[in-house]
């Protein structure tokens, strides 16, 4: 927390006080400044002038199975701005936090609830980190940990890139959260120059997920406004740069929309597009959004789409939907 660093400087405190704070806040996961017992009572009392968290929890809601929990937060600096974060508790023991980097989103994908909101606020570094720490503290009570973080919640990470990178630095800093880059995934609708910058800035071990959702330029333009500005040719040039520099497989998110992009011809076209690439396709049956015209395809149609990809040696999986009953699944976050 940069505010703490400033606080220590103003109170003429030695540098090791910051190390003590970071250990307690990020690793011991204290729930209030009162638990910062390596500091004197007087110093802790002065620290109370700072907010402990940049977020205020409004409420949480969970699925009947308790495998997905969604938290609604407001920003301390702007209580009218509200955003959502999701914890997914997988059967294999992983605990994945899906975090937001914005309130709303300016990209405006036609099938996405967040996209219908427009951009309300860009989150700060601490507002991103505090989403993770909320669930890290919750899991600590159950003797569990956050194992993975995905930047797949509200907002477009590449349009808040400096802040996203600062939050990643905190996550991978061994003296702070201490996660591996390989446990982090950043998803983007596809901003070529920012993808290149992300690689050049040294984030070459993180997982990159591309929200593709169409196998050709014309169809992509109809459902994703970003394609009108950045063609698939430009996007794939940036993706190729990522693969050349990082030698890592790219995940392609493909939401299946009934009668729109789920036909056999689309699967064959997608296979041609990704042939000879380091690629894995995550097929996501559409999660309904109130007021949005799209529908979910049949299970038979989804399986056939996947089989066409498999027959053409394109690695793929059908995403297990988690949290749809509480509007916490892919594309449903809307605060």
Strand content: 15-25%
Please state the overall shape, judged from the principal axes of the Cα atoms.
elongated
Low-confidence stretches: none
What structural class is derived from the secondary structure elements?
A: alpha/beta
Sheet of most strands: 10 strands, mixed
Helix content: 25-40%
Using DSSP, what is the number of strands? 12
Please give the radius of gyration in angstroms: 21 Å
Write out the strand line-up for the largest beta sheet, numbering strands in chain order: 1-2-3-4-7-8-9-10-11-12
Count of helical regions: 11
Summarize the helix and strand pattern as letters.
HHHEEEEEEHEHEHEHHHEHEHE
Mean pLDDT: 93
For the termini, the CA-CA separation is 26 Å
SSE arrangement:
Elements: H1 2-10, H2 16-27, H3 41-47, E1 55-62, E2 68-75, E3 78-89, E4 95-98, E5 102-105, E6 118-122, H4 125-140, E7 148-151, H5 161-172, E8 184-188, H6 192-200, E9 207-211, H7 217-223, H8 226-229, H9 232-246, E10 250-256, H10 264-274, E11 279-285, H11 299-311, E12 316-318
Parallel strand pairs: 4-7, 7-8, 8-9, 9-10, 10-11, 11-12
Antiparallel strand pairs: 1-2, 2-3, 3-4, 5-6
Task: Give structural notes.
34% of the residues lie in helices and 21% in strands. The chain is α/β, with parallel strands linked by helices and 335 residues long. α4 (125-140) packs parallel to α5 (161-172) and α6 runs parallel beside α9. The longest helix has 16 residues, at 125-140. The relative contact order is 0.11.
Write a concise keyword list for the protein shown above:
elongated; alpha/beta; 335 residues; 21% strand; 10-stranded mixed β-sheet
């Amino acid at each position: 927390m940069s505010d703490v660093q400033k606080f220590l400087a103003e109170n003429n405190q030695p540098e090791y006080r910051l190390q003590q704070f970071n250990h307690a806040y990020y690793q011991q996961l204290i729930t209030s400044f009162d638990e910062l017992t390596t500091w004197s009572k007087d110093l802790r009392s002065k620290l109370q002038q700072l907010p402990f968290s940049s977020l205020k929890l409004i409420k949480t809601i969970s699925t009947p199975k308790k495998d997905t929990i969604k938290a609604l937060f407001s920003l301390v600096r702007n209580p009218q701005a509200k955003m959502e974060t999701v914890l997914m508790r997988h059967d294999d023991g992983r605990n994945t936090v899906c975090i937001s980097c914005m309130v709303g989103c300016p990209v405006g994908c036609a099938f996405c609830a967040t996209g219908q909101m427009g951009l309300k606020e860009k989150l700060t570094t601490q507002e991103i980190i505090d989403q993770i720490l909320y669930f890290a503290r919750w899991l600590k009570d159950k003797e569990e940990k956050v194992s993975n973080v995905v930047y797949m919640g509200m907002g477009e990470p590449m349009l808040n890139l400096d802040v996203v990178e600062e939050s990643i630095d905190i996550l991978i800093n061994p003296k702070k959260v201490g996660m591996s880059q390989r446990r982090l995934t950043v998803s983007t609708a596809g901003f070529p120059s920012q993808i290149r910058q992300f690689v050049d800035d040294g984030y070459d071990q993180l997982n990159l997920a591309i929200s593709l959702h169409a196998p050709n330029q014309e169809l992509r333009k109809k459902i994703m406004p970003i394609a009108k500005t950045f063609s698939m040719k430009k996007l794939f040039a940036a993706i190729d740069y990522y693969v050349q520099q990082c030698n890592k497989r790219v995940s392609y998110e493909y939401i299946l929309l009934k009668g729109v992009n789920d036909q056999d011809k689309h699967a064959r076209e997608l296979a041609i597009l990704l042939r000879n690439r380091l690629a894995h396709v995550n097929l996501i049956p559409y999660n309904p959004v109130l007021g949005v015209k799209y529908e979910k395809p049949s299970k038979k149609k989804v399986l056939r789409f996947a089989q066409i990809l498999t027959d053409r040696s394109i690695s793929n999986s059908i995403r297990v939907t988690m949290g749809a009953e509480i509007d916490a699944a892919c594309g449903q976050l809307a605060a």
